[in-house]
Amino acid sequence: MKIWGNRSAGAWVLFCLFVGGSLPASAAESSLENWIVTQTGRSMDRIYLAISPPDGALGSVMASPSRDLPNYYFHWIRDSALVMREVWAFRALNPTQARKTLIDYALFSRGNQNTDNRSGVAFDGGLGEPKFEMSGAPYDHDWGRPQNDGPALRVLALLGLADDMMMTGQQDFVYKNLYTPEMPARTLIKADLEFVAHHWMDPSFDLWEEVKGDHFYTRIAQWRAMAEGAVFAKKMNDPDAAAFYGQQAGLIMDSLDKFWSSSKNYLLATRNWVGGHDPQEKASLLDISIVLGVLHSGRSGSPFYVDDDRVIATMNELVNAFDYQYAINRDKLNDEGLPMGPAIGRYPEDHYDGETTNGLGNPWFLCTQAMAEYFVRLRGELKAHGQVNVTSISRPFFEALTRQNLSQQRRLVSGDPTFTAVLQALQDRSDAFIRRAKFHTGDGGHQSEQFNRVHGQMQSARDLTWSYASFLSLRRIREKNHD
Ligand code: NOJ
Ligand code: NOJ
User: Fold this and answer.
1) pLDDT for 16-48, tens place per residue?
2) pTM for the model
3) From the CB of residue 14, how many other CB atoms can be counted at a distance below 10 Å?
């Protein structure tokens, strides 16, 4: 039996991402297609500038070069994992550089694991610490901690490297640094998996670092880490751990069902709110973190993927809420007269403007680009299935998308004109969100964290590394699913 599959297939496809893959759909669209190609290169360049900067430790990743108002010059576990995922996904561009970068990151992360901090001691509760100084020193001030999505996302960022090293004769590095069955766990992936397996049920702070409780975003990341971790543990000759991780994955999946609110008709961001901000600051519990969780950690064919009607209903509710929320969304056409989707933020009641939490929240690039990715991913999924069930939960979305009454149609299938119209509309909507992000992007492709809800200018942390990672993810997914 061949255990270590060949993962390098498709490398050339990735290479084509920089020189432009598909041809523009029409002349009017060529500027969008060109921009996407250019923005891919710029995003990758900026990501590399954020990794191991001159005054940061090797393998650290700055969330942004901004050092005050706000100070984001730290290594966040979440942001860096999402960045490393893209470095690895685009490795075909420069395999040696990508691998070296992930190794540096892995070694820096091992240092983080081995550092006592205010979330707890090394290799234990300390793994929930959300961020470290760029030197690797612990962050010694108050913060919303722990944030337990971090270790799960880090596992997901590194499994590809570990697999690859096992296949290419570098087992020693893996056994020494990434994974051995030995307990207590002192290797990077193993320690993160053990942490997730034993702590997923604990309340922690959400990805926005504001609310302590149980969060859909955190849980789905933990589910995926356990599910992938189980497969990997088996390959690493650690069958008992594999069974245990698999069992935890099942329990986590069951717990995700509880986030559905049938009265609100969407998935709630948080349950069992126990601390942090006042619950009244997010009374709706409606949050883009659901969509981000699905994109970062969902798996095709499993519940809570892009085509799950509960996810569709949530996404639809979010788009409508933000469309209404921000003044800039009244402009629905760009300078060429082409449609722009609504700018998307974190949650409707958000008050964080980059400096204070009593201002007015704004749309974010990474949220708007996530919506573009969501639509094109959903398109790819429906196209691959050749059909879609229209349920009472997802019907309002499909009716608005197609402008048709679908009350008599429970299922749309390939060949049916309405199904074709759905696929086209999803692609068009995705492009409309990309035009929105492009519209607010600065000269030279700069993307900060936010852009102002009234005048549209960039705001908060400049050159947010995660903004660029979200663009690269969108680009990858679009390449597979866009005609
Ligand atoms: C800084 C956090 O990074 C941000 O997400 C949050 O909204 C504010 N602090 C307020 O808690
Ligand atoms: C604030 C965001 O809310 C959080 O998600 C992120 O990790 C940090 N900024 C760093 O970018």
Assistant:
1) 566 655 544 555 567 999 999 999 999 999 999
2) 0.96
3) 16
